[in-house]
Design a protein that fits this description.
This protein is mostly helical. 66% of the residues lie in helices and 2% in strands. It contains 13 helices and 2 strands. Strand 1 and strand 2 form a beta hairpin.
Length: 357
């Protein structure tokens, strides 16, 4: 007995969804990576140098232009390997590594501890849950973030900051592990926790407060796209102001050279911890040094905020992209491109598949 013919227009299977989602994620990270390279190099430019030092890059666009001119496409896509692996992981680990999978359980349990209903939205518990989930996510994703930052900073033509040359992600991980052991792979984890906790702690509360303000005063309706966009824009500015100093400290902590300490363990030559980094940066470069690369960072955050903090603007149709709070703006920016590309790829795939049937 012949098997029934496939039904035209049937939903895609899980396997098909994984393939389409993986392709979409690869496209997204390839598009957004040059901006990340520029941001990383701007944050390292003039490290601990007094104001007035000659700049290699004038701004983000100049950084991308000079990188392309001197290093070609390969230079603009440095760190693409770990960035792609970071984004294209299966949904379960992706949610864990970004802290998204922990946010709701943390928030609900904290609500219970203070005697409130689990489903109730409370600003204080949202901040604590966001910071806690972000810290967990930052800890788990640290090795890939570490090698990504170092690979993006490397430039044979216009170097800024310490230079670490790695052939690929596996070479980077193995080189660091051989030289420093597991301690090397968690280098900068305190800065990662600080950065992610600060960003996560203000993202959702600032979004909700802005949205409630607009709705309660009848400025915009509750379910309007403009309400979501306005709330996300305000939240993005808040995240950038609060998180950017820690983001700069993170990049510098990751990239600083290391030497053997008195106890034989490898230690950073410039900074002891993220607070020490922020203090030395402010002392040498002023507070403005904390906000190097702020324009490209704000762009990444603002675009990523439009992804929606509670799913109102975009529907996630791939298991590769987190639907909730994302502490990393570049990854969320990737998720927007991923969602768009995913829909286009799925529609094209369905069309080809159904025509073949």
């Amino acid at each position: 007995m012949a098997s029934p013919a496939p039904v035209r227009g049937r939903p895609i299977s899980t396997a098909e969804g994984f393939l389409c989602g993986g392709l979409a994620a690869c496209i997204a990270v390839t598009i957004s990576n040059p901006a990340e390279v520029a941001k990383t190099r701007l944050q390292l430019q003039g490290e601990l140098a007094k104001t007035g030092t000659a700049k290699v890059y004038a701004n983000a666009f100049d950084a991308m232009g000079k990188t392309y001119k001197n290093e070609g496409i390969r230079g603009m896509q440095r760190g693409l390997g770990p960035a792609a692996r970071r984004l294209c992981l299966p949904n379960t680990f992706e949610r864990v590594a970004t802290g998204a999978g922990f946010y709701e359980p943390f928030r609900r349990n904290i609500n219970k501890l203070v005697g409130r209903r689990p489903e109730e939205q409370i600003g204080a518990t949202a901040i604590i849950a966001g910071a806690s989930s972000g810290a967990v996510g930052a800890s788990l994703g640290n090795p890939l973030f570490l090698i990504k930052a170092r690979m993006q900073a490397y430039s044979p033509a216009l170097p800024v900051g310490a230079q670490h040359y790695y052939k690929n992600s596996f070479h980077a991980l193995s080189t660091i592990f051989r030289a420093e052991g597991l301690r090397g792979l968690v280098r900068g984890i305190d800065a990662a926790i600080l950065r992610t906790s600060m960003g996560s702690s203000v993202q959702l509360p600032s979004y909700n407060l802005t949205k409630n303000f607009l709705v309660s005063r009848d400025i915009l309706p509750a379910n309007s796209t403009w309400t979501f966009l306005a709330s996300s824009a305000v939240s993005g500015v808040c995240v950038c102001i609060v998180m950017q100093p820690a983001d700069t400290a993170l990049t510098r902590m990751y990239n600083q050279p290391t030497v053997p300490g008195p106890n034989g363990k490898m230690v950073g030559t410039l900074y002891k911890n993220p607070i020490d980094c922020l203090w030395k940066t402010a002392k040498a470069e002023g507070v403005r040094g904390w906000y190097k690369g702020k324009r490209i960072q704000l762009l990444l955050i603002e675009v990523s905020q439009q992804h929606r903090i509670d799913g109102a603007l975009f529907t996630n149709r791939t298991t590769y992209v987190c639907q909730h709070l994302r502490p990393s703006p570049s990854l969320t920016f990737c998720s927007i491109i991923t969602l768009t590309a995913n829909d286009l790829i799925i529609n094209l795939y369905k069309k080809i598949r159904d025509n073949d049937n």
